[in-house]
Specification:
Layout (H helix, E strand, L loop, with lengths): L1 H18 L1 H7 L2 E5 L4 H12 L3 E6 L7 H10 L4 E4 L5 H10 L4 E4 L6 H6 L1 H21 L4 E7 L23 H19 L4 E7 L1 E3 L18 H9 L6 E4 L11 E2 L1 E3 H11 L7 E7 L5 E2 H12 L5 E4 L14 H7 L7 H14 L7
The structure holds uridine-diphosphate-N-acetylglucosamine.
């Protein structure tokens, strides 16, 4: 009877461990976040701190600032160890692994502007693929066997049927940014075959937007924003005059492209949940999206109705490389990680706008 009760207690304990990030924090205590000062990285660092993890951030600050981490510390009332290091610097990275004892790496570091990747392919492959290799080498040398990778829905390529589901093969990628994500995914898959005790989760993001509800951290694009939401927020704030809607003749209900926008805090929470998937070895893939697409015109009208601002816009020619529409099948993340995106488009817009009006110059003080 006693053995039986012990077994029941043990089973309940194990189920609890699987579901609770707080308990995961007991076993996977120390997390190294590469690129942690950036948009998705900083929100994820906040969720990791709130989940009870110790976080060290490594970032070369080429497109970010540690001000985001200072603000994460003020929201969470916890501290983060910062390292200003480029992950392609082998010696500096080895010293970092030597100085800390990391249980998991969450890997965001990389370049992410699609257009720029076409004109600077060497920089993109160097940062995104070679950087990933450098990181893996240190993980091998220092026996770190768990990693979460920041991937993108772009790896499904141009011809995948919607909604995108993880069982689809990676498609033909059409720019160096997309190719660098697909190559890194392949690298992790091959590596997990060679090292059967390694666990990697590849997280394919759809279109993350929004900001933390405090308005203290958010997306801080340098120069002219490439993506829809930061551009729209700057038009609403009067920093830019008009929004160009790229294409009004797509085979979609209103002729403009449809995307699966998700709140960056839902995405950040998803990284904490993804830590549970590292308990079993192997390489896994998860889509992180809502499963509900919205068109550019729908996003403009939602922004206007939520904020009361008018967004002057012109429908112009299509942007090279844009697909008419795609969205996620997020069933696997729900079933295996217990992760669902819960925040609405309205919340995404409220939080984007709050961040924009509180920080018209981003992290520049
Ligand atoms: C882009 C990247 C994708 C990356 C993602 C990260 C391209 C082709 N794809 O996705 O690889 O993972 O960002 O967030 O760049 N739009 C306008 N006017 C604008 C800006 C955008 O009409 O000023 C439209 C675009 O044509 C698109 C939609 O808004 O239909 C969303 O664009 P964007 O925010 O740039 O995201 P994606 O292109 O979907």
């Amino acid at each position: 009877m006693r053995t039986y009760l012990c077994f029941i207690n043990y089973a309940v304990f194990c189920i609890y461990l699987n579901l609770s990030p707080k308990w995961l924090g007991v076993f996977l205590k120390n997390i190294l976040v590469t690129g942690g000062a950036g948009f998705i990285g900083s929100h994820t660092v906040l969720c990791l701190l709130n989940g009870g993890f110790n976080v060290s951030v490594v970032d070369n600050l080429c497109n970010s600032s540690f001000e985001s981490i200072t603000r994460v510390e003020s929201i969470s009332k916890k501290t983060v160890v910062r390292h200003c290091i480029d992950i392609t610097d082998d010696v500096a990275l080895a010293n970092l692994f030597q100085s800390g004892s990391f249980d998991v790496v969450v890997h965001f570091a990389g370049l992410k502007a699609v257009g720029e990747s076409v004109s600077k392919p060497v920089e993109y492959y160097n940062s995104n693929v070679y950087g990933t290799l450098c990181l893996l080498r240190q993980m091998i040398d220092f026996d770190v066997k768990k990693l979460v990778f920041s991937s993108s829905a772009t790896v499904y390529g141009e011809d995948a049927p919607t909604p995108y589901v993880e069982t689809l093969p990676r498609g033909v990628t059409v720019n160096p940014y997309a190719s660098s994500k697909a190559m890194s995914e392949r690298l992790f898959e091959d590596f997990c075959i060679a090292q059967p005790d390694m666990s990697v989760s590849l997280l394919r993001y759809f279109n993350p937007i929004g900001a933390h509800s405090s308005g203290l951290i958010g997306e801080n694009p340098l120069g002219v924003p490439n993506n829809l939401m930061p551009f729209m927020a700057q038009v609403a704030a009067g920093t830019r005059e008009r929004l160009s809607v790229f294409g009004g003749d797509y085979p979609t209900p209103d002729g403009t492209c449809r995307r699966d926008y998700l709140h960056v805090m839902d995405l950040a929470d998803g990284h904490v949940k993804a830590l549970a998937s590292l308990e079993t070895p192997g390489c896994k893939v998860f889509n992180f999206g809502t499963g509900n697409p919205h068109s550019v015109l729908e996003m403009i009208h939602a922004f206007e109705s939520v904020t009361g601002c008018v967004i002057p816009y012109d429908i112009v020619g299509r942007r090279n490389g844009d697909l008419a529409e795609f969205w996620a099948d997020p069933t696997k993340a729900k079933n295996e990680l217990d992760w669902v995106a819960t925040r609405s488009v309205e919340e995404m817009i409220i939080d984007t706008w709050n961040w924009q009006i509180l920080n018209p110059k981003g992290y520049e003080i």
